[in-house]
Amino acid sequence: MDYYNILGVNRNASDKELKQAYKKLSMQHHPDRTGGSDEKFKQVNEAYSTLKDPQKRQAYDNPQPQFNSQHFNQGGFQGGFDINDLMGQFGFGGRQQMRNQDITIGCNISISEVYTGKNVLATYRLNNGLEQTVDIKIPVGVRNGDKVRYSAMGQQDIPQIPPGDLYVQVVVQSTNEFEVNGLDLITTKRLNILKLITGLYATISVPGGAKVNLNIPGGTQSGTVLKITGKGLPNRQGNPGNILVKIIGQTPSGLSESDKRIIEQIGEKYSWL
Fold this sequence. Notes:
Elements: H1 3-7, H2 15-28, H3 38-51, H4 54-61, H5 83-89, E1 103-109, H6 111-116, E2 118-125, E3 131-138, E4 147-150, E5 166-172, E6 179-181, E7 184-192, H7 193-198, E8 200-205, E9 211-216, E10 225-228, E11 243-250, H8 257-269
Parallel strand pairs: 1-5, 7-11
Antiparallel strand pairs: 2-3, 4-5, 6-7, 8-9, 10-11
């Protein structure tokens, strides 16, 4: 197997050229991409893993005579062994079940991106020093804490067994305006307490881009939570959450003396004021 040919570089390629070729080809041949190839993806990883290491590259460029373990009996192993068979003897399932460790990385998305989905390129480092790049595709309606799986993108510490998987855990970030609670969005609306007495319509800007009118009935108490049904975060089953609006009454400032006297007269008439 010609590692230089697999990466499409010449034998004098620099570390930078090797890295650029690896990133391009690992994305092109990733099994989860349309037209990807599991076999070519593994070849690209194997080639880069060898050539990026100066000692391994030197050994590859200057191969030494190899001995067949079945005939090398002078103080060594007779017949050789396969690490997968050895693992099987110790109850790890052998070739069919054993693989390298999985990796979990985080991906932060905004509330608005839950409505639209998101594509992002992420680079992470394996235990062996190899850097891998993954094209993360976050679908519309993803929930906080959901994980997206990418096969064979995990650790590669033991070459004789398959790589582990990569899991991308989604973190939906709350904002100053909205707090995320499952599929519900929680927000606070601060209003003049006199408006709460008479009632009003308030406009709420939804993260998905729409604006909805909220009917606040006259006499609404400060601390009341009103619900806007079906305008929260979407999900893949088509059942969106709600927006929960906590109403906070604020005392008006800058009242004239005549205004204060009117309020005092109202307060004398209604014991609740």
